[in-house]
Write a structure and sequence with these properties.
mainly alpha, Neurolysin, domain 3, three-stranded mixed sheet, disordered N terminus
């Protein structure tokens, strides 16, 4: 679907063509906003924090006004009344208009002043979080978290009337990232999944046959890790001519627009796989962004990701289903030996495969193994939902966090830095974001089973470093369609079934039980 092919575009002043033209303008402005935010997380000097917060606030207000002002509402209504569009609601154009309406209705519920205050507070709070995390001092961040939660509750109150499924304020925030999902819906997924994960983890813990992870402790300079990361990125298909890889405190991916997708990672010289899998994770996000039809549809829903759960399914798939596979290491180990020598000279494929597939409760979410990762997410979901409901005071976050880590994972949290200050999300006001990580794992596992039926030679291809067929399948079936489907609709269309935890459990049990000999 190209803008010039849109319904009504052939008539003078065609509403759909005009709407898409406006969308391109605000898509361009959003790219500038996102570039400024990316710079804050990578190269901006700390002394610029105050002025940067004003810049981000101004850009956010301008973007909000463009999306909600002028003729936008009138043009959407004109498209909805066009019989050619209204009569084909499942077409590309019909889906695009449907999503234009959703975005407009949500945006117009939020006052421009609140948009600016949220953006400015997020910019300042992110800098406060960096300092608090470095000092391991939650008390210095608490006032910012208080303010961000108050603003998030204000935002939720604005959005509740246009969130049909909402039963509580948290639902209106979650709906921004995972349309149609609710806190009760997440509960219905998490509650039965938790004992299945805990049971598997306990089963593996009783095994005397633990993987030897000594090889992962090899000291490898960050610059060599960065070089190897670039090699992997190129091989799996992230276009480095249209993107780049930088370092930051908390890894992320930003897709600004056509030809510009930025990845970030972080390095620990004593554990090279942290950066490797962090890079592959963000590359999954990046290839989704590069696969969206932004050149033709910048600013339109047709060039946006379906949901964060689907976005996360791409990153977790490349990180875990590809990167932690035996086949990946058949291809990657000779290359890693050449770059990291002599650190991996005694490593073998089976040893690497076992070492990167452990199941051991730990403190840090982004470094957690596949089996325990979702328990980290469940803790954050429980806390942020209570913060928005007002049943958990901000001052009690550290104690609640530490108690849940003991209950869910059996670990003692030694300090705030490795506890409730490890994630940047709440400082940015990204409330409702965390559950999408587990949804991503579930979608990834279900898609993976379908992909293996569609590409029966996939494992052999990966062992040869041939990742193009997998990338092409994802682009053809997911990336290229923008927001044409809802997440649950996409899942049913591609897999023939609603979302289920069974594929993820089959994946984890089928891999980890043989490794642990149980």
């Amino acid at each position: 679907m190209a803008t010039g092919e849109s319904v009504g575009a052939g008539r003078p002043g065609g509403a759909y063509a005009e709407l898409c033209g406006l969308a391109r303008r605000w898509g361009t402005l959003k790219a500038v906003h996102d570039l400024v935010s990316w710079d804050q997380e990578t190269y901006m000097p700390p002394g610029a924090a105050a002025s940067r917060s004003e810049q981000v606030a101004m850009l956010s207000e301008m973007l909000h006004e463009q999306r909600t002002g002028g003729r936008v509402g009138e043009l959407i209504a004109a498209c909805e009344s066009d019989p050619d569009i209204a009569g084909t609601p499942d077409s590309d154009v019909g889906a695009n208009v449907r999503e234009f309406r959703r975005d407009f209705d949500r945006a117009t519920r939020i006052p421009t002043a609140l948009v600016g205050e949220l953006a400015k507070t997020a910019s300042l709070a992110a800098e406060a979080w960096k300092q608090a995390r470095s000092a391991s001092d939650f008390s210095s961040f608490a006032p910012w978290l208080e303010k961000m939660m108050r603003l998030s509750r204000d935002k939720a109150a604005c959005l509740l009337p246009c969130t049909p499924a909402a039963k509580e304020p948290y639902d209106a925030l979650l709906d921004e990232y995972e349309p149609g999902m609710t806190g009760a819906g997440i509960d219905a997924i998490f509650t039965p999944l938790r004992p299945r994960l805990s049971g598997l983890i306990a089963e593996l813990a009783r095994s005397p046959r633990k993987p030897d992870t000594a090889i992962l402790g090899a000291t490898i300079p960050a610059e060599r890790q960065h070089s190897f990361g670039h090699t992997v990125l190129g091989a799996i298909g992230f276009d480095l001519h249209a993107g780049r890889l930088d370092t930051t405190t908390h890894p992320f991916c930003s897709g600004f627009g056509p030809g510009d997708t930025r990845l970030t990672t972080r390095y620990r010289e004593e554990r090279f796989t942290d950066a490797l899998y962090g890079t592959m994770h963000e590359a999954g996000h990046g290839m989704y962004e590069q696969g969206l039809p932004k050149a033709a549809h910048l600013g339109q829903p047709a060039a946006d990701a379906i949901s964060l759960g689907i976005h996360e399914s791409q990153s977790r798939m490349w990180e875990n289903f590809v990167g932690r596979s035996r086949e990946f290491w058949v291809w990657a180990l000779p290359l890693a030996r050449a770059v990291f020598r002599p650190a991996l000279e005694h490593a073998d494929v089976e040893g690497m495969y076992r070492a990167v597939n452990t199941a051991s409760p730990s403190l840090i979410r982004v470094e957690a193994d596949e089996a325990t990762y979702n328990l980290h997410v469940m803790i954050r979901f429980q806390i942020e939902r209570a913060l928005i409901a007002g049943s958990l005071p901000v001052r009690d976050v550290p104690a609640t966090w530490n108690r849940l880590y003991k209950d869910y994972l059996g670990v003692d949290v030694p300090d705030d830095r490795r506890g409730c200050l490890q994630d940047v999300h709440w400082s940015f006001g990204l409330v409702g974001y965390f559950p999408t990580y587990t949804l991503g794992n579930l979608y990834a596992a279900q898609f993976w089973e379908t992909i293996n039926r569609s590409l029966p030679d996939l494992r052999a291809q990966m062992s040869r470093g041939e990742f193009g067929p997998l990338r092409a399948w994802l682009n053809t079936n997911i990336h290229a369609h923008g927001r044409r489907d809802r997440a649950d609709e996409l899942c049913r269309r591609l897999t023939g079934r609603p979302l289920s935890a069974d594929p993820l459990m089959r994946h984890l049990e089928g891999k980890l039980r043989p490794i642990y000999g149980v």
